[in-house]
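User: Predict beta-N-acetylhexosaminidase's structure from this.
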Amino acid sequence: MPHTSHRLKSLLAATLLSATALMPTRAAVAAPAVASFADQLGYKLTVVPNATQDGFNTRLDLTVPRSGTPTGAWALYFGSVSPVEPVGDSVFDLTHINGDNYKLTPKSGTTLKPGETYSLTWAGHAASGYLAMPNAYIVADGTPPTTIAASRTTFDPATGLESLPFVTPITDEATTRKGPNDATQWLTPERAFIQNASRQVAQAKPDIIILPTPVSAKHLDGQPLNLNAGVALKLNGLTIPDIKAALDASHLKLASHGVPVEITIGAGQPESYHLLAQDGRITITAADAAGAAYAIESLSQQAAFEHNRLKPIEISDAPRFGFRGLHIDLARNFHSKAFILNTIDQMAEYKLNRLHLHLGDDEGWRLAIGALPELTEIGSHRCHDLKEDTCLLPQLGAGPQGSKIVDGYLSRADYIEIVKAAAARHIEVIPSFDMPGHSRAAVRSMEARYRRLMAEGKPDAANEFRLQDPDDKTVYDSIQHYNDNTLNVCIPSTYHFIETVIDDIKAMHDEAGVPLKIYHIGADETAGAWTNSPACQALVKEKGLDPAHMTPYFITQVSQMLGQKGIEPAGWSDGMGHVKPEDMPKQVQSNSWGGLFGGGVAEAYRQANRGWDIVMSTPEVLYLDMPYAPDPKERGMDWASRGTDLFKVFAFMPENLAANASIMTNIQAHGQTIADTEPLEAGRKITGMQGQLWSEGVRADGIADYMFYPRVLALAERAWHTGAWEPAYVAGKSYSYGDRQVDGHALLADWQNFNDRLTPLLAELDREQVAYRLPPPGARVTGGIFEANLAYGDLKIQYRTQGGKWLTYGDAVEVRGPVEARSVAPDGRRFSRIVTVK
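Assistant:
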């Protein structure tokens, strides 16, 4: 497969992701007392009961080593994505630095005794142990900052999954409830067994396994075509480079005397194709080169399934949406070029065609811009530099010296290579730098530039790209708790900066031979900045603007700038919804990320009625950084969904949004009604789907694989193919949980068909070294009889009793005592996490 060398390099890196390789190592020059203190200090996070209605708090326990504390002043720095608001007494003073950065110092006059444990307790708790941030560190006078050994991560060699050993295991289900109305239940092995069984349908296994599902596909009469000797191509209206990437990725080989394959470009819906394999030859008619490539992907999947003895087949196919995308957040934690290239390969395999690269946010700037080297010299690296002259503060558990895994950026050559690789696979790259909020990496990098040039006596150059009004006294707090993460939208240098960035990216695309078509502004979650900015006060007065609506002013200005360059502006729906459509370019994309149960349906349709391109990015279903299941052992942020499993993604209805209420509960596991209060106008429609991977807790490429796959395959299915069970949209129609307006029997039959087709494709992911999630078994013991099943994949299940030898599960078996179970990857090299039943 293409980029195998990249994947091997990536896997080699993953193998080295031990506590010392993934996370920052202690500086060799650290003073022995500080080094010993950081190595021996006990560090533990535990969810504990409280007396309030919420029920639980978080407690940090610090156990002083027998050798005592360092001499002189010292402080402990740690990260928390949730606010730390202490309750009760403590021997520590707590200071919020910025974002998720906090500092603990012993209170004046306090002496910490060797061997004693001291605690800090704060309000609130997490439903998963994976929401904690690793790599707390000690800073002492005259020594480099030193990571606390007990706060490092480890990796399980059997699963390849990251662990946070400093988090006390969460074992009480009540611990993870978010308030008295939360009805969420853990997906225990026993509950998973029942759920898995309820979704299984007894039906014939499919003999056509192409995924995503074609519009129509049927076997024909006749003799199989033997593809073992290869295929001989004849092209009409296209060239080999148009389909080379698809051929390279396929199981087909070219041979002058192979089965004749004639490919012709004709009329039809973009990306569509018709394939006929019969009577010893194959003919493909495609609307364009992308359609021809997709025909080859489909042919390859089916041929591999039939061991290159292809039964005669006819396929007619076309996509549901023209926009079928994936979003990768490189800003919060970096992901390697190898990972991106391999993701592009998988996208092509499953006919996804838009790659949205999130390259700039509060925690990092990840693309080299020639005129502004500080953006990557400072904004792509984290370290303990409180002035931030050389790096950003170590957010998200990066540690005091940063890390080669979570730090980094794409060079100009890297980005051009990615754009070219994507274009060869008929995938469009959409760059994104979130603005005007979520821009701290840019703001701090330009402030460092300003200080350097001022020190060099160059005030004009220093101010050329400054992003803050120096006289702005506004105090604000962003949703991620930064007080300095927003561009000032009222100063010319901000727009000069943005245009410089856009022009440089546009030049990279031009050099790659792939014009920049869409640029994503971001425009979401802007904090209440600028109120006391003299520059904004003057601009408001000069132009008669509404001081409470300066974000729409910014979006409009940048969108007009993009429109003049022939680039379509895109942004997140919350920010885009406040602009005046008449002031925007004719073509605009909005990523709809409003919650289904929180007004997102009306927002999506309202913006579609403006004539915009609406790409569904619904967080309850399409944020792939959410956990697979409500379980404290499942990683993922959980503000939008406590469990987004493969079935939930598969069952999403992107064109009839209210209908999702029939089969989906809200975040507290309650059924709810969704009323279509702002219906789609005649002729308006949803134009795409995009799966998002945000990276606050995704600190390695292997973890990104785990969160993406196999959910990406269900996303690809829904973005390409409309399920026959999806009710047609009827303007104004409401849906309620369990109202049976969605044909549940047809849905489950289609799910079973998808699940059966998934099995051989998981083996393919193994061969391509993609570290997808293996489902933990559902399991139960009833009357001494052990039973197990799986949510998807038809993989092998292994079990053992009392720490004995692993055995392959075949059918219900008599056992004694607790039983452990796990699933096994087709290649036998990886295992799911272990579940235990009694």
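The first helix runs from residue 4 to 15.
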